[in-house]
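Researcher: Here's a chain I'd like modeled. Treat it as a single chain, no partners, no ligands.
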Amino acid sequence: MLTKMNLEGNWNLHLDEKKSDNGLLTTYTDTISLPNTTSHAKKGRRNETVLVGSLTDEYLFEGYAWFSREIVIPDHLAGKRCYLHLERTRVTTLWIDGALWGTQNSLNTPHRYEIASGLTAGTHRITIRVDNTNYPTKGGHLTSEDTQTNWNGITGKMELQFFERVFLKNVQVYPNLAHRSFDFKAELVGECQDIRVVVSSQTLNTSHVHTPKEQIFLANSNDLHVTYQLGEDALLWSDDEPNVYKLHICLQDSSGKTLDSEEVITGLREFKAEGDKFSINGHKTFLRGKHDGLIFPLTGYAPTDVDEWIRILGISKSYGINHYRFHTCCPPEAAFIAADLLGIYMEPELPFWGTITDESSDSHNKAEQDYLISEGYAMLQAFGNHPSFVMMSMGNELWGSKDKLNSILKAYKEYDSRHLYTEGSNNFQFAPDILTESEFFCGVRFSKDRLFRGSYAMCDAPLGHVQTDLPNTLKDYDSNIFPEQDSTSDNSGKMEGQEIQIQYGTGSKTVTADAGSEQLISRVPVISHEIGQYATFPNFEEIKKYTGSIKAKNFELFRERLEAKGLGHLAAKYFTASGKLAAVCYKEELEAAFRSKHLAGFQLLDLQDFSGQGTALVGILDAFMDSKGMITPEEWRTFCSDAVLLARFSKYNYEAGELFEARIELSYFRKKTLDGCDLKWELLCEGNSLAEGISKIPSLNGQQYITITDVRIHMPSVSVMTKVILRLSIPDTDIYKTYELWIYPNELEVDWQGVHLFTEISEKALELLEQGEDIMLFPSPDHIQNAVQGFYCTDFWCYPMFRSISESMNKEVPVGTMGLLIQKDHPIFEHFATDEYSTYPWWSIVSQSSSIILDHLEKDLNPLVQTIDNFERNHKLGLLMECRVLNGRVLMGALHHEHLMTTVEGRQLLYSFLQYVKSPAYQPVTRLEVEELQRLFS
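Model: Modeled as a single isolated chain. Structure tokens:
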């Protein structure tokens, strides 16, 4: 490039919602400062619509936005070939001085209009029409109200780029790790005789600056192909050592005059699929990924400045993330530059979520499919030089022609070998297959029952182990990824030809299954897709953070609903308690992934909240990437890092004297050896050591998974229920891990003598109450209609969305609750150690319970243990309550007391109940009439 003219600044604006005006003849009555979007600039009519399932664009505009301005071409640039460069936009049409110049429609890459003969000196009018309606494809998360909104405008760089008679076009840099070199390929436009290519470079972000020797090549063809040697001391790029080179490529004529120069940011790396793992520069790595849908609630569009992406990706990196999967979208170049500098493995995805067809299909849309394929090539050309761009996906949850998908993959691989390619993310869902050309597999199951993540929607049942299993740390997915040869439980091939209903976006659709082999065994690395999705209650304090044109009207509505139920005062506690439970669920989810030796990585959904699809508040960070206060980055990294200590044990609750057995393992993907290091384990109570030990860490010998030692101790004697901490650490490193365990006094006597226990409101129960006696009322959960089933795990993704999908598929609706809110300091828990939120002592209790719906009770009955409902229903749910009826007192809840007697934690809870009701502290406040009590337990 010779020089450039910045076109940022004030432009005339005309909004044409009906798409009927001729912007060339229109008198412009408004202006806008570009780059910008019409919404962010608050142009047009105010949008009065309130979206319930996503954020609301307060100035949503869909149609033609006309932008026009005059520019002045100086004499020295007159007649120079130039390009109008628009970094990020929608479907654009360009006119220069009233002459139509063309239309471009890339949603992911810059629009570049060539003006081959240049412009004359003097004044010219540039008119750009941007259309955000007639897309060649739906656009996935690029155009969705669920994510960055369907904005209209132009963001990023806007400039006229001028070139001399000879210049470089489409410079592509191919790293060659073995030879410590970069291979350059480019098109040399113009006469190449006596043209010299001068290449120099320097590292950008290293403490030790590496400056390879300048090298000069003669251009002997318009197809330029040269090799630039970096030397044996070249610095490599990876997630832990992100050494970036800035290459300077200069074209000179025989006199040494500079004709053109280009700068390319790149890195020397080799990212490969090797067996069941990925490798970077010959070293195995594990992808600790997150989903990204380009959610930016302050602006409604993705930033194009590097500093903002460094801030965003840096936050993720502080939580141990080293991989980003962009759902049906590709970020701007600034994101790749930031990822280069920080060390993040990037996976953009074609903007498609649907069915790939071939010419034989009646529904084949050739124009759309050709567009998607061309968009992939455009992404490879625009961003392929970045070392962080290591992977690419064909789309999200695709169905259709496997042959067509294979042919697209093959063509991409032949065109650009710098990246690994996959057929899509979670393609074919219940009937997965791994296509011949796929270099890795991203999914959630290999058959209906061969699952490899911890949670699922009810419509995708069976549910995952985090949702259903007695809490433990034994689970891994190895036997599901590589089942035993004689396994007969896999039915993947039996769905072939069947019509099945699947979740599709926020709804459902019917597809025809075309399964692969009888038992699908992966020959490529396996990544678990969109894991987690543990919902938290909204934080209504977040509403005030939406200071731009994107407003949290959904949050405002959710707050109004909660207040209408008389529960608004509990919102902050709901938020905190549900968030604490979600964090623990995420811990088990991630640890199961790290325990799985045959898994290559995971992609979280998500580290941050997802603002759409019903409002899925599944992050430990909010949509602004700010912490919700659930867990610190340091603690999160203890189970999301390149070095994770793991203790495998069967349960969290133990009786005093009971044998605790744990196998201590290490998932380790660092280059530094641990030779001579020790593992230290401690059992701590309020900082005091109850037991401890030290074991030598065996030599890794190139392994990523090792067993360090087995810990076998008899739990110490305790007189009261006691929470203890199992702490694992490798001294003099940052590697440590903690687990909460609970120890209970043994031979605890649950004495029912003198207590009136009832499972229904019988005449006898009412007689006793009339006589001033107290009763305990614990009806079987199975017999209560006015209740919600007990479910320990927090809700999956978002109740409104999956309730609707389940109903449309005639499947069971999710329970939809979000953990417990407990009056932890109430005297009823004097003998049952508890936090204000759900912890593992409550798992078996909740699982054998129901929560009574208190919505229609006019009295202010404040449950001792309240189940948090989702923000759509907002039921007031009582798991444990107390009240006065007639002349007596009632402690009540739909608890299966006989089952409680079978577990150590259940007996402890009942013991605490009995001590309480026999004490002076038993003073219920709320009085209920008999009829009110009966309605509750109907």
